[in-house]
Amino acid sequence: MTAIRPLLLLALTLAACSKQPASQQDLDSLDQELTAAGPGNQRDPALTAALRDQIMVDPALTQSANTNVVRPPARPDPLSAPPEPVIATPDRVTAADLKPTPAAKGDCPACRKATGALTLGELARRQSAATAGCADHVTYSAGWANRLPAAVPLYPDARVREAAGNDACGLRVVSFASSAPVGRILDWYHARVTRAGYSAEHQAAGAQHVLGGTHGDSAYVVYVTADPAGGSQIDLIVR
């Protein structure tokens, strides 16, 4: 009996040392279930090793993750905002400066000439054969807006955007904006040109209106379109 007691104590001690805590046993059981979830996992050592590996995270690389993902901008896109409305300004135009423009005709050949014109020179070149060669040699400068003939000047509150010209043939082309509505622009130019002896023909297609005419060898064309923000956009061609 005395000899058996030490052997019994040794067996109990070894059993206690080999027994794992309950929490560790639970983790091992879960790991075995994951790695043996299907026959595919048992046959793929790489997948089994990947499931058993600890996930490593590098804080220095977290900001560069998903670099190709589309994210919202850090600040609003300025081009997505609607245009600011044009505030009407006094143009010093009186009723005596206006003359009602005749109704537009059904067709608008002048509108078709302007379609797709990307530059003032190209717009002028499309008007007639007489201006085509001259328009090929225009130069661009805002100063051309100050060299228009007295009979066909800029509208009083004009905001010049671009201007071109060629002194060799007296060509002037000016693009500008105004806070005045389309009808007021047309009536003002109609009064100016007819009092100077020019003819006047009104054409329109959609939102685009064209007033044009001649006086001897001189000619003019006024393109007027309503600005979505208010007022009008004008292209003036004089030769």
From TrEMBL:
Listed Pro residues bias regions: 73-85
Region (Disordered): 62-87
Organism superkingdom: Bacteria
Name listed for the protein in its UniProt record: Lipoprotein
Organism in which the protein naturally occurs: Sphingomonas melonis
